[in-house]
Automatic annotation (TrEMBL):
Family as reported in the entry's similarity comment: Belongs to the transposase mutator family.
Protein name: Mutator family transposase
Keywords from the named record: DNA recombination, DNA-binding, Transposable element, Transposition
Listed InterPro entries: Transposase_mutator
Keyword DNA-binding tagged: yes
Keyword DNA-binding: yes
Molecular functions per Gene Ontology: DNA binding; transposase activity
Entries under NCBIfam families matching the protein: transpos_IS256 (NF033543)
Region of interest (Disordered), residue spans: 52-91
Comp. bias regions, Basic and acidic residues: 82-91
Organism of provenance: Solitalea canadensis (strain ATCC 29591 / DSM 3403 / JCM 21819 / LMG 8368 / NBRC 15130 / NCIMB 12057 / USAM 9D)
Range of residues in the leader sequence: none
Pfam families, A to Z: Transposase_mut
Length: 406
């Protein structure tokens, strides 16, 4: 025997049973589903009545039957009847045309799962298991596309005038384009503001990494309000330091020691690498630049004839490699390598590692942006002992780094 739609006693009994068992009260079989369906349909009908005012009726517009819509909610899928008008000018506010997802919380859950690196297939399965709701890949793509304006706003947001230390590095990915797979470089700029807090200043996509593109990136930072960077930490990409100083003329550039070591070892025979590293450590671990240069001379005397290219590289890059010697230990640890931004990249790759090749540049940016949102939630506190570091920077960069003493 079919139960009347609004048998309140039946609804109360069923609701209590479902509540005690932990089942959804609003899903397809939920006790409150008929009430929610009735409310939505009545509200839509009232909206149509309001739309069909005297002017609309005088123009010949009338009610024109009803259609059906599957409405996905965080508690399941409902089938509701949607009223129509003859001219098709009725635009409901409660549930807009082509809107198939009622709960914003469901959209936020989908974005959260996507930001953790879950595929559309896995998200669809999870939503089906949790909410008894089927969501197509096209719908999921449309939901994640909703953050595109947010990304553009973030990429164009104003920045602070001063950043004390900035790390610049690129990540490399594969993207599908015109039925082929191509390489993409994602340029990231991670900075420390005057208060010691981390901030991702920008994220840019290009076909390859190069000094010319970095020049455009740095110009964009300046256009968005950055007038000074005290120290920039980079890898040993050719022309990179010159690109930085072309835009920020007073910035001191530190080339990553670890990158230099890795590149050196590529040209040292495996049987010599252990001994070579033993002799190299006193160079970059010296207490000051003078001692480091003495150790570099000793290294060259011992290994220069056997590995001339390696020692020439150290000599050629020495000024950019040795910038950190003028600072105290705390700042040296921050700037002598690009480990800070590489640590950020490692966290991003944990999210992107399941992707073979992204379907587009947009898909790549969306995922990295969402991953950054999760990672940056931990960037609420200044770096350890920042007060002391800031006071030292204020002395070294007198007039450029001003302390807030109020």
């Amino acid at each position: 025997m079919e139960t009347p739609e609004f048998d309140l006693e039946f609804i109360k009994k069923k609701a209590l049973e479902q509540f005690r068992s932990g089942k959804s009260l609003y899903g397809k079989e939920g006790a409150f589903a008929p009430l929610l369906k009735h409310f939505l349909e009545a509200a839509l009908q009232a909206e149509l009545e309001g739309h069909l005012d005297e002017e609309e009726r005088n123009s010949g517009n009338r009610k024109n039957g009803k259609g059906q819509k599957q409405l996905k909610t965080s508690d399941g899928t409902l089938t509701i009847e949607t009223p129509r008008d003859r001219t098709g000018t009725f635009e409901p506010e409660l549930i807009r045309k082509r809107e198939t997802i009622l709960a914003e919380s469901l959209e936020s859950k989908i974005l959260g799962m996507y930001g953790l690196g879950m595929s559309f297939r896995d998200i669809s399965k999870h939503i089906k298991d949790m909410y008894d709701t089927d969501i197509s890949h096209a719908t999921l793509s449309a939901i994640t596309d909703k953050i595109r304006p947010q990304i553009k706003e973030w990429q164009s947001r104003p920045l602070e005038e001063l950043y004390t230390i900035v790390w610049l590095d690129a990540m490399h990915y594969k993207v599908k384009e015109d039925n082929r797979v191509v390489s993409r470089a994602v340029y990231n700029i991670l900075g420390i503001n005057r208060y010691g807090k981390k901030e991702l200043l920008g994220m840019y996509v290009s076909q390859s990494e190069g000094a010319n593109f970095w020049l455009g990136v740095l110009t964009d930072l300046k256009n968005r309000g950055v007038s000074d960077i005290l120290i920039a930490c980079i890898d040993n990409l050719k022309g990179f330091a010159e690109a930085i100083n072309a835009v920020f003329t007073e910035t001191e550039v530190q080339t990553c020691i670890v990158h230099q070591i890795r590149n050196s070892l590529k040209y040292v025979a495996s049987k010599d690498q252990k001994e070579f590293m033993k002799d190299l450590k006193p160079v970059y671990q010296a207490v000051n630049k003078d001692l480091a240069e003495l150790r570099l001379e000793e290294l060259e005397e011992k290994w220069g004839r056997k590995y001339p290219v390696v020692l020439q590289s150290w000599r050629h890059n020495w000024e950019k490699l040795s910038t950190y010697f003028k600072y105290d230990v705390a700042i040296r640890r921050l700037i002598y390598t690009t480990n800070t931004i590489e640590g950020f990249h490692r966290q991003v790759r944990k999210v992107t590692k399941t992707k073979g090749a992204f379907t587009s540049d947009t898909a790549l940016i969306k995922l990295i942006y969402l991953a950054h949102g999760n990672i940056s939630q931990k960037w609420t506190m200044p770096l350890t002992n920042w007060a002391q570091t800031a006071s030292h920077l204020a002395i070294w960069f007198d007039g450029r780094m001003k302390l807030d003493l109020n």
